[in-house]
UniProtKB/TrEMBL annotation:
SUPFAM superfamilies: Acyl-CoA dehydrogenase C-terminal domain-like, Acyl-CoA dehydrogenase NM domain-like
Pfam families: Acyl-CoA_dh_1 (PF00441)
Organism whose genome encodes this protein: Mycolicibacterium arenosum
Cofactors that this protein relies on: FAD
Keywords: FAD, Flavoprotein, Oxidoreductase
UniProt keyword Transport present: no
Annotated ranges, domain Acyl-CoA dehydrogenase/oxidase C-terminal: 193-326
Family: Belongs to the acyl-CoA dehydrogenase family.
Top-level taxonomy: Bacteria, Bacillati, Actinomycetota, Actinomycetes, Mycobacteriales
Keyword Oxidoreductase: yes
Protein name, per record: Acyl-CoA/acyl-ACP dehydrogenase
InterPro entries linked to this entry: Acyl-CoA_Oxase/DH_mid-dom_sf, AcylCo_DH-like_C, AcylCo_DH/oxidase_C, AcylCoA_DH/ox_N_sf, AcylCoA_DH/oxidase_NM_dom_sf
Length: 331
């Protein structure tokens, strides 16, 4: 199992980074947050570039490369939810031109004469308000549902460009053909890896902005980056990011190879990314001082995206507990 990018992956990373820099610039993210600009054209750009076709598990590393760059840019599209939560649950029913979302909790399915009836509410569905189709996980299986058959309401969250919705099912009828035979455990591993590497990308953006500020901001006649206190914070952020990044790509490798270690690898990636964002959030904000709290500073978008990732799909403490329990059972 190679732990470094090969030549093709390095070229892919450079290509994606260049494309994201041109199409998802900070000015676009700010216009989405402040003026409600529709990011659909950006989503179509991703689709036209073939990025929405990275659904085969063999492409997990290439998908992770895209997600890291989108996390770094605070991507305002439904790419994360569609490719890492919805697509793994629907298999060959996936349409690369359509946005999707996954409903993980709160819904039950009851058999009737013509199929199944879904009822319940999930209060926090990533991109549930703008998905065209939903993959609904229930104790009776996974069901594919059209968005027009449910009630979705976007809820306010602190990340101004992140869409989180309350999705309700009031006796939604689903045919037997829309009950999907899917490995929900593997799908969860992909979702965890995707969320974790997105957080790593956001943390990298925080570090980049902090370093830029430390080089230009002057105190006592010199750049604050010359102070050891700032240097130590930057070093700690770098180490935390590199550690989390390595675990995320290891998780992607285990998914691509269908390695049985992928369960632990995905949990370790999410836990490490959660711990990383806590440190990077604190040090990055402290490096900026009061400026970091202002709306005019683009730092806010990366901070909020990193913190939002920690609150979705289980936090670091939850995944650390699972890992500890797993190892305790081996002795």
């Amino acid at each position: 199992m190679l732990l470094e990018f090969d030549a093709d992956q390095r070229l892919w990373q450079e290509t994606v980074r260049d494309a994201v820099g041109k199409n998802c610039a900070p000015t676009l993210v700010r216009s989405v947050a402040e003026d409600g600009v529709d990011p659909t054209p950006l989503w179509k750009t991703y689709a036209e570039a073939g990025w929405t076709e990275l659904t085969d598990t063999e492409n997990a590393v290439e998908l992770a490369i895209v997600l890291e760059e989108l996390g770094r840019a605070t991507d305002p599209t439904p790419y994360l939810a569609t490719l890492t939560q919805f697509a793994p649950l629907v298999g060959d029913r996936f349409d690369p031109l359509s946005a999707g979302a996954a409903v993980y909790t709160g819904v039950t399915a009851v058999r009737d004469s013509g199929g199944w009836v879904l009822s319940g509410t999930d209060r926090f569905v990533l991109d549930g308000d703008r998905a065209e189709r939903l993959a609904v996980v229930t104790p009776a299986g996974v069901f594919l549902v059209n968005a027009e058959d449910v009630t979705a309401r976007r809820v306010d969250v602190f990340d101004p460009v992140l869409h989180v919705a309350e999705v309700s099912f009031a006796g939604v009828h689903v045919a037997d053909a829309d009950r999907l035979p899917v490995d929900t455990e593997r799908a969860r591993h992909i979702a965890l890896m995707g969320m974790a590497i997105t957080m790593v990308g956001a943390c990298q953006r925080i570090l980049d902005l902090a370093l830029e500020h430390a080089k230009s901001r002057q105190q006592f006649g010199v750049a604050i980056g010359t102070f050891q206190a700032i240097q130590h914070k930057a070093a700690d952020m770098h180490v935390a990011i590199e550690r989390a990044r390595a675990l995320c790509y290891f998780a992607a490798l285990t998914i691509a190879a269908d390695d049985p270690r992928r369960r632990l690898a995905a949990a370790m990636a999410k836990a490490s990314a959660g711990e990383c964002q806590a440190l990077v959030f604190r040090h990055g904000l402290q490096t900026f001082g009061a400026m970091g709290f202002t709306w005019e500073n683009d730092l806010q978008f990366a901070l909020k995206r990193a913190k939002a990732g920690e609150l979705m799909l289980g936090g670091a403490a939850e995944h650390r507990a699972m890992i500890a329990e797993e190892y305790r059972g081996d002795y």
